[in-house]
Amino acid sequence: MKNRLKVLRAERDWTQADLANELDVSRQTINAIEKGKFDPSLPLAFNIARLFGLSIEDIFQDDVTPE
Amino acid sequence: MNHANPRPTDWVTINKRNTARLAYWTSAWVMTMALAAFGPRFIWDFATLPTIMALIVNLGIGFGMIMSNSRYLQGLDEMHRKIFLDASAFTLGVGLVCGLSYELLDSTKLISFQPEISHLVVLMCLTFLVGLVFGHRKYQ
């Protein structure tokens, strides 16, 4: 699953540690999500979306393209 | 976003506290295990009552350690919990398969020595550590 987390974070000049602290997760988890190595749960995705004031679809995009 | 004052109940603080608790319970369990194992031989000359008491204390602290481990797991964030659970599942599988095969080696007379449970415990500990390392590397 692709995401715009790194871009959104950079736009706000936040570090991974800042974002991790806001979301109550580890910095390593933020790093893994940004790299697309770990897909967050739905509650965490909602928290991320709420923090950035966007919808989940604005941040996360499915890798699979519809036929 | 307040960078200077992280919340007192943040993930890092909770994880540190749970890790310290788990270390405390694990140390206590190891010490009471040593007491129950070596006490009868070296301290109270196989007297029944202190041996039973040492075993009961060891068992009680063992359950405390299990609860502490459960609390530690609940305190992890979702990625670290996944790494922990994947390593646990891998360890359970290796322990079951290798433990039973090890027992078969003895029952089929393929080995001359008696299988020791401690060998299985060491294998499971090493397997868990390898599982954790692989899990962390996977998500780096």
List the helices and strands and how they pair.
The complex is a heterodimer of chains A (67) and B (140).
Chain A: E1 2-3, H1 5-11, H2 16-23, H3 27-34, H4 42-52, H5 56-59, E2 60-61
Antiparallel strand pairs in A: 1-2
Chain B: H1 11-42, H2 48-75, H3 78-107, H4 117-138
Helix pairs in contact in B: 1-2, 3-4
State the main characteristics.
heterodimer, A: 67 residues, mainly alpha, 434 Repressor (Amino-terminal Domain), 57% helix, B: 140 residues, flat
Entry summary:
Chain A has 67 residues and is mainly alpha-helical. Chain A has helices at residues 5-11, 16-23, 27-34, 42-52, 56-59, and strands spanning 2-3, 60-61. Chain A contains 5 helices and 2 strands.
Q: Which structural class best describes the helix and strand composition of chain A?
A: mainly alpha
What is the radius of gyration of chain A computed over CA atoms, rounded to a whole number of angstroms? Answer: 11 Å
Helix/strand-derived class of chain B?
mainly alpha
Give unreliable regions of chain A as ranges. Answer: none
Number of extended strands of chain B: 0
How do the strands line up in the largest sheet of chain A?
A: 1-2
CATH topology of chain A: 434 Repressor (Amino-terminal Domain)
**What oligomeric state best describes the polypeptide chains here?**
heterodimer
- How far the N terminus sits from the C terminus of chain B, by CA atoms, comes to 26 Å
Q: Number of DSSP helices of chain B?
A: 4
Largest sheet descriptor of chain B: none
Give the strand content of chain A: 5-15%
* CATH architecture heading of chain A: Orthogonal Bundle
Biggest interface, chains and residues, is: A-B, 18 and 17 residues
Q: What is the CATH superfamily of chain A?
A: lambda repressor-like DNA-binding domains
Helix and strand element order of chain B? HHHH
Percentage of residues assigned to helices of chain A: 55-70%
The number of helical runs of chain A is 5
Q: What best-fitting shape of chain B do the alpha-carbon axes yield?
A: flat
Number of domains of chain B: 2
